[in-house]
Amino acid sequence: MTEWSKPQPSSRVVVQAGAAVPAATPEAAAGDKWVEIPTEFDAIMLSSYGGPNGQDDVLPFLRNVTMGRNVPDERLEEVAVHYREAGGVSPINEQNLALKAAIEDELKRREIDLPVYFGNRNWDPYFTEAVSRAHEDNKVADRPTKIFALVTSAYSAYSSCRQYREDFADTLEALDLWDEVQIDSSRTFFDHPGFVNPFIEGTLKALAELVDENGELDLTKDVEVLFSAHSIPIKDNAQSGEPDEHDYADLGAYQAQHLAVGGLVMDSVKEQYGIDVPWKLVYQSESGPGHIPWLKPDINDYLEEVSSTRKAVVVVPATFLSDHMEVWWDLDIEAKETADEQGLGYKRVATPGIHPEFVAAMVDLVEERLNGTPAAERPALTSYGPGYDVCRAGCCQGSGKLRAAIGGLLP
């Protein structure tokens, strides 16, 4: 029985900018931003971050997350306590299996006959197992196996875009399948209606609950909606992609995209109530060395600050697709505790999870590529337009050394 693990970084040479897309389907290999030619795929790989399944998994999982960064176990134990409080089990695994099943049902409803495999970057089942099984199950004579990687991250950033593409490259090298498997990665979808609408629905519900519980609340003064994004290093934000040239031209794409989502949600709030409810983008889950500056303000710091002017907050976990560890620990426990200490009413909006609109959106991403849907006809609610099918050279470069990656123009 094969013992699967997280692969080591690929040794493939990173070549000059603008080079052809490696390990891509022929339709994507030319490097156009959007692939508007129908593409035949053999399988879908639902691609996620991963999480431990028990106490014995916690440290090995965190070592995978920090691979190559020489983080001592003593430092990892500071994060491990979050998982240990939950019995060492991350809820992300069960949530992704539920999403996989919902996607399979939606594919069947649309009469799309494609098998769905599930793989993680950092824990079992690893990308190596998912790609290997997809290849063995779907071999086609005289051509590589074509896999569409449906990535469970909506925004542009190193950890949510390029790092996945690096891990796909690592996987192909570990399996020695560079010439036998082609992987196209899904586009960013932060402004797809199916991702945004569940947040709109949840925010309106939370505000209505606050009003029902306290009819004297003035939504223009007493309540603030906080859009909580996973913090990233400021340098990573600056390199996260092309910012919105209309509204947030002076910001990195990651930050700008979250602000755009916040604006969409609050436009719906104004339409519902006829007033402007205060809102702000805040950050959570900062980690890493203290000398590296990260996006701020931290949600807990801001809750302490805003308690002098507000009576209640509604927290929207805008980065996250499901109610996994960072939502449960950082928002439902730590931020809620801070709000209680400050005397603030607190409502936390649900993530999209397996909301029917979100499941449909994920299958939309598949169907766009199967049909070669023109970019102008793809759902997108902001002036960004739909995310690119093929990342630009150097897209979402992180703070470290540029590594081999697929799904985009090199390097």
From TrEMBL:
<feature type="binding site">
    <location>
        <position position="90"/>
    </location>
    <ligand>
        <name>Fe-coproporphyrin III</name>
    </ligand>
</feature>
<dbReference type="Pfam" id="PF00762">
    <property type="entry name" value="Ferrochelatase"/>
</dbReference>
<feature type="binding site">
    <location>
        <position position="230"/>
    </location>
    <ligand>
        <name>Fe(2+)</name>
    </ligand>
</feature>
<keyword id="KW-0456">Lyase</keyword>
<feature type="binding site" description="axial binding residue">
    <location>
        <position position="49"/>
    </location>
    <ligand>
        <name>Fe-coproporphyrin III</name>
    </ligand>
</feature>
<comment type="function">
    <text>Involved in coproporphyrin-dependent heme b biosynthesis. Catalyzes the insertion of ferrous iron into coproporphyrin III to form Fe-coproporphyrin III.</text>
</comment>
<protein>
    <recommendedName>
        <fullName>Coproporphyrin III ferrochelatase</fullName>
        <ecNumber>4.99.1.9</ecNumber>
    </recommendedName>
</protein>
<feature type="binding site">
    <location>
        <position position="164"/>
    </location>
    <ligand>
        <name>Fe-coproporphyrin III</name>
    </ligand>
</feature>
<comment type="pathway">
    <text>Porphyrin-containing compound metabolism; protoheme biosynthesis.</text>
</comment>
<keyword id="KW-0350">Heme biosynthesis</keyword>
<dbReference type="InterPro" id="IPR001015">
    <property type="entry name" value="Ferrochelatase"/>
</dbReference>
<feature type="binding site">
    <location>
        <position position="326"/>
    </location>
    <ligand>
        <name>Fe(2+)</name>
    </ligand>
</feature>
<comment type="similarity">
    <text>Belongs to the ferrochelatase family.</text>
</comment>
<keyword id="KW-0479">Metal-binding</keyword>
<keyword id="KW-0408">Iron</keyword>
<keyword id="KW-0627">Porphyrin biosynthesis</keyword>
<dbReference type="InterPro" id="IPR033644">
    <property type="entry name" value="Ferrochelatase_C"/>
</dbReference>
<dbReference type="InterPro" id="IPR033659">
    <property type="entry name" value="Ferrochelatase_N"/>
</dbReference>
<keyword id="KW-0963">Cytoplasm</keyword>
